[in-house]
Amino acid sequence: MNNDLEKLSTRQKILDSATDLFAMKGYTETTVRELAAVVGVKEASIYNHFPSKNNILECILEEYLKFTTSFFDRGNLSALRENPTADNILSCMRFSFPKGQVDFYLKRLYVILQEQHRNPTVRAFMCERYILNTEQTFEMIVNKLKEFNVLRQDTDPDFWVKTHSSLIYAFTSRLLLGIGDSSPEFSGMGMIELLRNLYGTMLKTCGVEK
To answer: Can you give the C-alpha Rg of the chain in angstroms?
Structure first.
């Protein structure tokens, strides 16, 4: 049992250290030898847990997706009926992270945003799972807000979903072009702040007058 726990602990340490290095240096620039040195193990030990560096990246993506999916499952959509705020929409969209774990998830989000333009694995993840999943979730939330009579019935979900996706694409393109500060704090919290403003604008312009 202790050996199993030790293996799990080492595996998580590898994922956490890889996330830090990928966020700081980029996936391509990070070597397995460098990762092993940071973790404090031999290079061969890394391959005992992961068959390749790309598999480490895939596991980081899955780790983030698993969190966001389970967090959405725990999300309370009824809160949008009682208290329809931009922050509550962020929570339902899984952009509101558990207290004390913000850095953990923002670094993973940063790796996703940073690598999607140059890494086929991340690009496929973004196109096939992340963006599509995000669009479907946001469309469902807009429709729920209409059902709750928070948004007017003539509110067009498609318009807001497209605006939402365009904002994410524009933000990540900004990172690719190197415009502004590309630190993890900027890429994570900056995007979340833009989304918060978008949700607030939607509630203000399409909200039902009470």
So the answer is: 19
